Every structure is written in structure tokens, then in C-alpha cells.
TrEMBL record:
One of its GO terms (molecular function) is kynurenine-oxoglutarate transaminase activity. Keywords: Aminotransferase, Pyridoxal phosphate, Transferase. Its cofactor is pyridoxal 5'-phosphate. InterPro entries: Aminotransferase_I/II_large, Class-I_PLP-dep_aminotransf, PyrdxlP-dep_Trfase, PyrdxlP-dep_Trfase_major, PyrdxlP-dep_Trfase_small. It comes from Ooceraea biroi. Residues 65-405 form the Aminotransferase class I/classII large domain. This is Kynurenine/alpha-aminoadipate aminotransferase, mitochondrial. It holds the Pfam family Aminotran_1_2. GO terms for biological process: alpha-amino acid metabolic process.
């Protein structure tokens, strides 16, 4: 595939920074090499002499001398090499991606960092991008300043509707309009709708991507937080042409503050993102990377999976509780689908035009949820949805929140009724 077709002129003009390349060389050079090349501070001057971590199962680990040195120091932009190796092995096992030898991984500071760098490498001024509507708002804030044309694809209970994607692309092609070079997707336990795109729908979207030559950016931070029996088959595992850019994040499954995620994509795309990282934050936090490497090494693949299964039980129970409470309090007032993963309940309120108004009232009445407009491709349009998170609130608070939401909806409906009588 010709990856230069997908890159912006800015991305094409990026050049490697020599000192960063030297850091990479220093890491892989034989021990006997004397290096006076890098501009690193001397770790002996740092105040930290030991870093130990206690885990929830009662075990603990301490970084050894080399690990501590790496954790406190600059590391290669692509990532702390032992972590990169562990991630490569993990990805191979988790997704068995076709064309593995032609792919690479780069460590980023969470999915948001990965998606913004990717989109900035691909979306030039005024370029079109395909997105599901509604979607995670972290995309809009990246592409709007580039005056991107956001093409929202309506969704049903299985995600973006393939026929609509096809119709839009066919029409654009016939009328000679600019064709999108990328589609953003959040395939598993989608934020905000909580759906999982089923395998057949994934395959169909992938087929369209091949037909119309666009990349798929699968931002999949909830991949291991689904409530299905089977692991969803990722877009990466279907990617026979090298057009999927997969973003994983440790934010939801290990820690959000650790700020580490990783991108798996065709090597030329990874190289382009690496150059962007060189020109911005140099590399994702080394301390976080070393701690993650230790954890992955100690737990192994099976240990990681066991942890993910524990997470799924934890959030599934919460999902069941909030769904039962929503059924109890919002019966006849609102509609929702039981989320298939993640931690959001997407609530539709028929008969209400603007959920912002409900939430403004809610602030005074002691309940806050996210108004649906925040997730729409056009946030200025009023909409009747609300996103409620079930990840952290106590069950008592969830109950109170649903009770208060019901009161707010009744008050809004009463006000609408009076307004309609007046007009
Ligand atoms: C779909 C999606 N993508 C990206 C992010 C950002 O995650 P990270 O902490 O990995 O940057 C979030 C966080 O809520 C999200 O829901």
C-alpha cells in the first residue's frame, strides 16, 4: 500500500531528530560502547534511590538498578525497548494480526495522544473524516481546528450503518468530492452508546474501507471490558491489507494516571507517528513504561487476562445494578439499551428536545450526567440523550441519581406541556 497517500504535507515533511535517533542507538549498542553522544542528565543526581510497587493481590515488586535507571531517564521515542517487546508478544497473542512482520508498535501517552497524533498526520485542512455519530468527543477537538469535514455516520444498535457509508462514498466519488482517507471507530463498548460492533458489521466496514481506500483508526480502550462470553474479534485481526491503526490504552484497565497506551499499525504509519512524538513530548512517561513492563512480565499473558476478567465481573455487576435502577425509576420516561461493555448507560428521553436543559436543572437539583450533545458530530444541535457513567458511583448514589433524573424529566415534560398550551 502507498501510505504516503494518507499523510498530510506536514507529516511528510517531518524529519528524524538526530539526538533522539542517538538515544535509540545507545539502547541497542553493545555494552562495550562508550557513548558521549546523548544529552542525558546523570541519574546519580536524582533523589530517588528505590521504587517499589505493591499490588492488590498482596505481592510487590522493586525496580532493579537497570530498570530504575531507565525509569528515571530519557528512553527511545518508540518506547522502553523491553516494554515494546512485551507489547509485541501480547498483540500477537491477543489479535493474531495478519501481515505481522509489516507492522510495528509505538508507545503513546494514552489513546487520546495516539488518536490526536494519528489524525494530525492524516487530516489536512478541510479534509473529510468518517466518524460514527455519536462518538467520543476527543476526536472532534482534534480535527475541528483543521476545518475537517466531519462526516457523521448514523448508527443502529450494531454501530455505524454500512449502507449509509457506502451511499455517502458512492455519491462523493460520482460528484468528484474529496474522499475520506480515514474512518474513526471505537468498536468495543463504544463511548457513549455501550454497543459492540458485531463481527459481520466489522467485516462489512472493513470491506468498504478496502473498496474506497481509507484507513480505519480503531480506538479500542474498552476491548477487554466487554460483557460478552467471547472476546470480540478486533479490526486488527481482520486487517489483511495493512489499513487498520489500532489504539490500545492502559487507562481503563491498569490506571488512567499512568498515561500509557500503544498504537499498532503498518510500520510506515508508526514511523510517521514516532516522528511526531519526537517533535512533541519525546516519549511517553518512562517510569510508567517500566512499571507496566514489570507488571506484564510478572503476570504474563494469562495473568493479564485474569485481571481483565476480574474487571469485567466488576463492571458487569455495576452495569446490572444501574440498568435495574434505570428500569425502576425511568420506566415510561426514558429508553436505554443495556450496555454490552465499558461503563456508560446511554439514555434517550423521548418527548424532550434538549437534554442540556435537563442537565442545567440537574446541577441545581444535585445530579450531573453528560448531555448527549457533547457526543454528537454537531454539538450545537439540541438532542434528547444523556450519558450516565456507572464506573464509580456507589449503588446508593446510582439510585439517587436515577430517582433525581426521573424528577428532572417529569419537570421538563411538564414545562414543555405548558409551553405547548401557550402556543
Ligand atoms: C473512546 C475513548 N478514546 C480515548 C479515550 C482517552 O483515553 P486515554 O486515557 O487512553 O487517553 C477515552 C477516555 O474516556 C475514550 O472513551
Amino acid at each position: 500500500m502507498d501510505y504516503s497517500y494518507f499523510k498530510t504535507e506536514v507529516a511528510k515533511r517531518r524529519r528524524p531528530m538526530t539526538t533522539r535517533e542517538l538515544t535509540k542507538m545507545a539502547y541497542s549498542a553493545p555494552k562495550s560502547t562508550v557513548s558521549l553522544a546523548e544529552g542525558m542528565p546523570n541519574e546519580e543526581t536524582f533523589p530517588f534511590t528505590e521504587i517499589s510497587v505493591k499490588l492488590y493481590d498482596g505481592t510487590s515488586f522493586t525496580l532493579d538498578e537497570n530498570e530504575l535507571g531507565a525509569a528515571l531517564q530519557y528512553v527511545p521515542t518508540q518506547g522502553y525497548p523491553p516494554l515494546l517487546q512485551a507489547l509485541r508478544e501480547f498483540q500477537r497473542r491477543a489479535h493474531a494480526p495478519p501481515l505481522w512482520e509489516s507492522r510495528d508498535i509505538v508507545v503513546v501517552s494514552g489513546s487520546q495522544d495516539g488518536l490526536s497524533k494519528t489524525l494530525e498526520a492524516i487530516i489536512g485542512t478541510g479534509d473529510p473524516i468518517l466518524v460514527p455519530d455519536p462518538l467520543y468527543p476527543g476526536v472532534e477537538v482534534v480535527v475541528t481546528p483543521h476545518k475537517a469535514e466531519i462526516i457523521g455516520i448514523p448508527q443502529d444498535d450494531d454501530g455505524p450503518i454500512p449502507k449509509v457509508i457506502r451511499d455517502i462514498l458512492r455519491e462523493r466519488m460520482i460528484s468528484g468530492e474529496k474522499m475520506p482517507k480515514i474512518m474513526y471507530i471505537n468498536a468495543t463498548a463504544t463511548n457513549p452508546t455501550g454497543i459492540i460492533i458485531p463481527l459481520e458489521r466489522r467485516k462489512e466496514i472493513y470491506r468498504i474501507a478496502c473498496e474506497y481506500n481509507f484507513l480505519i483508526l480503531d480506538d479500542d480502550p474498552y476491548h477487554f471490558m466487554h460483557f460478552d462470553k467471547e472476546e470480540p474479534k478486533s479490526f486488527l485481526s481482520l486487517d489483511t491489507e495493512g489499513r487498520v491503526i489500532r489504539l490500545d490504552s492502559f487507562s481503563k484497565v491498569i490506571s488512567s494516571g499512568i498515561r500509557v497506551g500503544f498504537m499498532t499499525a503498518a510500520a510506515p504509519l508508526v514511523a510517521s507517528i514516532e516522528l511526531h512524538l519526537q517533535s512533541s513530548h519525546l516519549h511517553a512517561p518512562a517510569l510508567s513504561q517500566v512499571i507496566l513492563y514489570k507488571l506484564m512480565k510478572i503476570w504474563g499473558y494469562e495473568g493479564m487476562m485474569e485481571h481483565f476478567i476480574r474487571l469485567r465481573h466488576f463492571y458487569k455487576e455495576r452495569r446490572d445494578v444501574i440498568s435495574a435502577l434505570a428500569r425502576k425509576h425511568l420506566n415510561g420516561l426514558a429508553e436505554f439499551n443495556v450496555p454490552k461493555g465499558g461503563f456508560f448507560l446511554w439514555i434517550k428521553i423521548p418527548g424532550v428536545n434538549n437534554s442540556w436543559k435537563i442537565m442545567q436543572r440537574g446541577v441545581k437539583e444535585g445530579v450531573i450526567m453528560a448531555p448527549g450533545a457533547a457526543f454528537m458530530t454537531d454539538p450545537s444541535k439540541p438532542c434528547n440523550t444523556i450519558r450516565a457513567s456507572f464506573s464509580k458511583a456507589s449503588y446508593e448514589d446510582m439510585n439517587l441519581a436515577m430517582e433525581r433524573l426521573a424528577e428532572l424529566i417529569r419537570a421538563e415534560q411538564a414545562e414543555n406541556y405548558i409551553e405547548n398550551l401557550d402556543t
